[in-house]
Amino acid sequence: MTPTESAPAPAPATQAIARGGLWGLSAGLGALYLTQGLVAGVGTLVVAVMAAQGHDLESQTGVLAMGALPWLLKLVWALLWDRLAPPGSKRRWPLLLATQLAVAAGLSAFAGGRWFAAAPWAFFALNLAASWQDVGADAFAIDHTPPARRGRINAVMAGARALGVGWLGASVLYAAWGRWGPEATMLGLAALVAGLGLALLPLRAPNTAPRAAPVSASWAELPRALVATPHARAALGLCALALLGDALSGAVALDFLQKRAGWSLSALTEQLVPLQVGAELVAYALAAAFVDRIGGLRCVAGASLLLAIGWGSFGFAESLWTEPDAVRALAVLESAARAWLFVGLYAFAMRATSPQLRATHFVVLMSLLNLPRVLGPWLAPELHARSGYAGIWLMAAGCQLVVLVYAAWLVRRIPPDTPAEGPRNVGRRGAVGRA
C-alpha cells in the first residue's frame, strides 16, 4: 500500500500470472510449499523418535527452537531477493530451483549414522535453506496472484505444506524409517525433493506487471509502510499475536500424547496423523472456496474461537486426556481451525502489503508470525514445570481468545478485506479481466 489511509489501488487490467495460468502457478507454488512441509515433517519425525526413545523435553524442544531460528532471518533474505531478483527479473526461477536443490542436499545430510547428536544444528541448516526458499516463493506469489484469488492460492500453498508436514512427513516417513532405516529414508526424501523441481517449470515466465520502487526507496519507506494504513496496522498486530497459543500447545503436544495421553508412536503416525491431515485438507479445500468471499479477518476470528474452545476443554477437563475419542476430536478440530487461521492470516497479510515494498513488507509480517515458534519451545519446559499440561492448554486458549477479540474488533473498525476491485476472471494462459 502507499503510505496513506486510502484503500489499495486496483490491480492492472491485465497481468501475467505464470506459464499455464492459475494451474501452473498453483503447481509451482504448491511444490515449493510441499517441500517446506516435508522439512517441517522431518522435524516432527525427529522429535517424535526422540520422545519415544526417552529423551527429555528440553532436548526435543531444542531441536524445534533451532529449526525455527532461520525463519527470523527472512528480512535479510528479502533484501537479498530484492537485490538479486527484483520483480520482473528472469533470475527468480533459477534461484528458486537452486534453493530446491539446496533443501534436497540438506535432507541427505540426515542420512548419517550419528545425526541424533547433531540434530539441532542439522535441522537449523536445513531450515536455513527452506526459509530462503520461502521468501522467494512468497515474493513470486505476491507478484503473480490476482487480488480476487489470494485466498485460493494461499489455500493451495498452505494445504501443500500441511500434506508435507502430516501425511508424507509423519506417517509415510515413519513407515519408511521403520522398514528401510534412516539412511535410505532420508536419501529417498532428498531425491523426491529434487524431483519436485520439475513442478517449478511453470514459474519460468517473468512478471509483466509494473516494477516496484527501487530497493533503497522501499527500505527507507518500510517503517512508515508498516503502520501507514488500517490494513497494515491490523496485519502487524494480528501476526504478532495469532500463533502464540499454537506455539505453546505445539511445543508439548508430542510429549503430552505419548507420556500422558498414552498414545504410542506407531498409533500416532498410523491413526492420529492421517486423521489430522484429512481434516486439514478438507479445511483447506473449503477455505479455497470461501475465504475470498468472507474475508481473512472473519476466518481468523472463527478459527480462534474453535481453537480456544478445544484447548480450554482439555485444560479444564483432565479426564478427557486418556479418552481416545476426545483426543481424536481435538486433533480434528485443531487441524481444521488452524488451516482456516493460516489461510485467513496469509490472505489478509498479502492485502496489507505496500505495492512499493511487496515481499519485504510481507516478510516482516511473516517474521512476526514465526516469532512465537521460537519463543514457544523455549518457554514451554519452564511453563510445564510450573503449571503442567493443563496450564499449557489454558494459556494457549487464553492467547487465542485475545486473537479472537482483536480480530472481531478489527472487523468493525477497518474496511472489508475482501477485494472488491481487481481481476475476477483468469484465462488459461494467465490473462486476467473483469467479469
- Kindly state the percentage of residues in helix: over 70%
Query: How widely separated are the two ends?
Result: 25 Å
Low-pLDDT segments: 1-16, 206-217, 417-435
Q: If you average the pLDDT, what whole number results?
A: 80
The structural domain count equals: 1
- CATH topology description: Growth Hormone, Chain: A
So, CATH architecture? Up-down Bundle
Major sheet characteristics: 2 strands, antiparallel
What general form does the structure show? globular
- The side-by-side strand order for the widest beta sheet comes to 1-2
How many individual β-strands? 2
Q: Radius of gyration over alpha carbons?
A: 21 Å
Q: What is the assigned CATH homologous superfamily?
A: MFS general substrate transporter like domains
Given helix and strand content, the structural type is mainly alpha
